[in-house]
Design a protein that fits this description.
The complex is a heterodimer. Chain A has 9 helices and 12 strands. Chain A is an alpha/beta fold. Chain A has one domain (5-88, 134-252): 3-Layer(aba) Sandwich (Rossmann fold), CATH 3.40.50. In chain A, helix 6 links the parallel strand 7 (154-158) and strand 8 (185-190). In chain A, helix 3 (94-104) packs parallel to helix 5 (136-148) and helix 5 runs parallel beside helix 6. The relative contact order of chain A is 0.16. Chain B has one domain (2-256). The chains are: A alpha/beta, B mainly alpha. The A-B interface holds A 51-54, 71, 73-74, 76-77, 79-81, 83-87, 89-92, 96, 100-101, 103-106, 146, 156 and B 2-3, 6, 9, 12-13, 16, 19-20, 23-24, 27-28, 91-93, 95-102, 257.
Chain lengths: 253, 257
């Protein structure tokens, strides 16, 4: 089966700073893929390249089978991006935001699509209020709803739960699980390791410009066999694995 | 095939962008006050408070003043273009649009079109008020078309300058700063008083900056007087500045992608 996303030897520098040295990974169709990394590791740079916002310096990147450099329009037809900041128009109402995106996607029934999404995301009551009056969680829900218009095959979510309260976070997790359940491929970046543990089918850790580990959570856990302490067998959390790997890498240098 | 499809949608997408930013204009009392009410207040002030003491050589001061007031209204709107562009850039709205299958420049052109449409509305309101205040013009349809053309050109020129500011600003305040130098140009020109009463240094500046020939051209067109070469000076100023500002703004816009 063809992969939803394929990245080989991806490079990107900002002047002297080599953010991405050589990044390789693949995302299977219908999976939730979580890209982990510390702040400034280059997660957003990867998202921007995959969503055609930024040009790569080198390497091969295909999204939904289309090369991002030579077929950006086809890539844009297949994807949607929910960026780090909830990109909703605060002056417009929730409904107007959704209708605008539906029109820009040239759907034949923008109003019906909008009503359906408002319902699904629990925004029907707030539909005719300006988005500036929304709470952080509502804004994020509207943001994600806007991204789902036109049923993109691959959804990119760049730190979708940053700044949300635990309740809002759980709501977003639920949405992501439903998305993947309906066959959509989800590419997720996050700083919250618990989030990756909860959601992801595949996890990759980006550190110092390279993917240093990738696999399923079970595979990652196998890399670090449980430490045998006197009588308690302690399973490492993903957080332990992450910090350990980064620590080891630093010592190698 | 993809590219053909995109082209067909360009104007439609721009129209959607236009509707969006027009909502921003109409829902911002601040914008309406600055671009319509302020120029009207200024017109009232100059005509009914200061006008009696200003000797312009025309029978009615409102006739002399109106072209300048129209330019002030356009200048006032420039800061808001910059502000709206900045917010779109900062809040990730451009990123959202650019990751969608729509023409890359549609969001920017949407802002340009909004500037034109909102200025048309505010200028019509101002002219209606001027009519109530006794403004009368002997201009024919061709002269009016020429006036519309010059005002459009002036609007686009200022809007492209404002676009540079909005796209390259690092803060909201920075985006708005462009408004100040633009506000001053109509004040130091023949828009309110004839330049002959000014001290020589100021007079030299006033006579050799873009607003004076634009004001003089519009005035000549309104009252059926010969436009002379002022119109060419006005066009040269506008087209040169607009072209440079357009190229520069486009460069900044594309670099942001």
């Amino acid at each position: 089966m063809q992969n939803a996303i394929q990245v080989k030897g991806l490079q990107k520098s900002y002047r002297q700073l080599h953010v991405l040295k050589s990044v390789d990974f693949e995302v299977e169709k219908g999976n939730i893929f979580a890209l982990l990394g510390t702040n400034g590791a280059g997660k957003t740079t990867i998202v921007n390249i995959l969503t055609t916002l930024l040009k790569k310096d080198g390497g091969q990147v295909t999204v939904n089978g289309f090369d991002v450099a030579s077929k950006p329009d086809s890539v844009r037809q297949s994807i949607s991006l929910t960026g780090q900041f909830a990109a909703v128009d605060e002056v417009l109402t929730g409904r107007e935001n959704l209708v605008m995106i539906a029109r820009l996607r040239h759907l034949s029934h923008p109003r019906e699509v909008t009503d359906d999404l408002l319902q699904r995301f629990g925004l029907s009551d707030a539909a005719d209020r300006r988005a500036s009056t929304y709470s952080g969680g509502m804004r994020r829900r509207l943001d994600i709803a806007m991204s789902l218009i036109g049923k993109p095959q691959i959804v990119f979510l760049d730190e979708p739960t940053t700044g949300l309260d635990p309740e809002g976070r759980i709501e977003v997790w639920k949405i992501i699980k439903e998305l993947a359940g309906s066959g959509t491929t989800v590419f997720l970046t996050t700083q919250y390791l618990e989030e990756a543990e909860q959601l992801a089918d595949q996890i990759a850790i980006l550190h110092e410009g390279e993917i240093i580990v990738s696999g399923t959570l079970a595979e990652l856990k196998k890399l670090f066999p449980p430490a045998k302490v006197e009588y308690i067998e302690k399973q490492p959390t993903l957080e332990d694995i992450f910090l350990k790997i980064i620590g080891n890498k630093k010592e190698d240098k | 095939m993809e590219t053909i499809k995109m082209k067909n949608y360009f104007f439609m997408d721009m129209g959607i962008m236009l509707i969006r930013s027009m909502r921003h204009v109409f829902r911002s009392l601040d914008t309406i006050i600055t671009v319509t009410i302020m120029p009207i207040a200024m017109m009232l002030l100059f005509v009914y408070v200061l006008g009696g003491a200003i000797k312009t050589g025309t029978d009615k001061y409102v006739n002399y003043l109106l072209p300048g007031i129209l330019l002030v209204a356009i200048a006032n709107s420039a800061g808001y273009v910059s502000y709206r562009l900045f917010l779109d850039k900062q809040r990730g709205i451009f990123e959202r649009f650019h990751s969608m299958p729509i023409a890359r420049s549609a969001p920017l052109w949407g802002h340009m079109l909004t500037s034109l449409v909102s200025n048309v509305i505010s200028l019509i309101v101002i002219i209606l008020v001027a009519l109530l205040m006794g403004f009368r013009s002997s201009a024919g349809i061709l002269s009016w078309l020429a006036i519309v053309g010059i005002l459009t050109l002036f609007t686009l020129t200022l809007t492209w300058i404002a676009a540079i500011a909005g796209l390259s600003a690092k803060s909201v305040d920075g985006a708005g700063v462009i408004a100040y130098p633009i506000h001053f140009l109509p004040l130091i020109s023949s828009a309110f008083v004839p330049t002959k009463s000014m001290p020589s240094g100021v007079k030299a500046f006033a006579e050799h900056q873009p607003v004076t020939p634009i004001v003089e051209t519009i005035r000549a067109l309104l009252y059926n007087q010969p436009v002379g070469n002022q119109i060419w000076v006005a066009l040269a100023w506008c087209i040169t500045i607009m072209f440079c500002a357009y190229l520069f703004a486009m460069r900044v816009y594309k670099k942001r992608l």
